[in-house]
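Researcher: Here's a chain I'd like modeled. Treat it as a single chain, no partners, no ligands.
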Amino acid sequence: MEIRGHLMAKSLEDWVNSDVKAVANKPLDWLSSHYFFRDPARPLYSDSCFFFSPADGIILYQKQVKPDETVIDIKGQNYSLRDAMRDESFDQECMIIGIFMTMYDVHVNRIPFAGTLCYKELEPIGTHNLPMLDTEVDLISELRISNENAEYLYKNQRVLNSIYASDLGLRYYVLQIADYDVECITPFQLGQNNQCSQNERFSMIRYGSQVELIVPITDQYEFELLQEPGVHVEAGLDPLILIHDLDLEDEEETQDDET
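Model: Modeled as a single isolated chain. C-alpha cells:
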C-alpha cells in the first residue's frame, strides 16, 4: 500500500544538508525572532488508518514498553512511561515515540488522530528546566543520537495532552516537554474537552523542545511503526503508526474462507 507522506520523511543527514544549512548562516536574532515562529500552511490529511506525527523533529526513539519498563537508559538511570507522565499509577503498556524539535523546526504541534482533547501542566520537579542544547548539537553537528545529555526528560516542564479517539475507543497522549530557555507551552484553545480534527494545530512550544506520542496497546488494534530513529518528520504530513483493525481483518479472513 502506498502511504501518502511516508516518503516525505528525511534521514537526519539529508535534513541537515537541505533544511538546516539553508538558513544556518542567518543572524541568530532573525532565526529566533522570525524563522522560529513560522507557521507554514499545510494540507489537513484525514486518514483513520494512521497516527500522524504531532511535531516536526527527529525521532530519537520508538518502542513498545510496559509502564515501568525502560524507554531509554540515561547514564544508568531508567526513563519509563511513568517517569514521562509523572504518574506512578499509570498501568498501560504503550507504544511511545520521542521526537526532538530543534530550533530549526516548526514548533506548532498537531493532532495525530482525531478526538476530544484535554490537557494539564504537570508539576515541575526542579526550579529551572535543564537545557537541551547538547542534544541538539549531537544531532545537527555530529549527526548522531545520544542519550548522554537527556537528563531534561526527568525534570523539565511538561504538558500532558490526553486525546480520546472515539473512532478507536481509546485514549492516547501527546506529551510536550520544554527546554531551558523556553517561554511557555501555549495551547491554542484554553478550554478543555475540545473536539479536534486529525492534524489540526493545537499548541506551540517556544524554542527547543521534545514531543512524545504515547499510544496504549489494545486487543482490537495492532500498531505498526512506519519510521526509524534518526529520521526527520513533519507534523501533519508524515504518518508514524499504521493501525491494523484486528477485528476487521479477522472478519475479512472469515469471508475469504467462506468464498
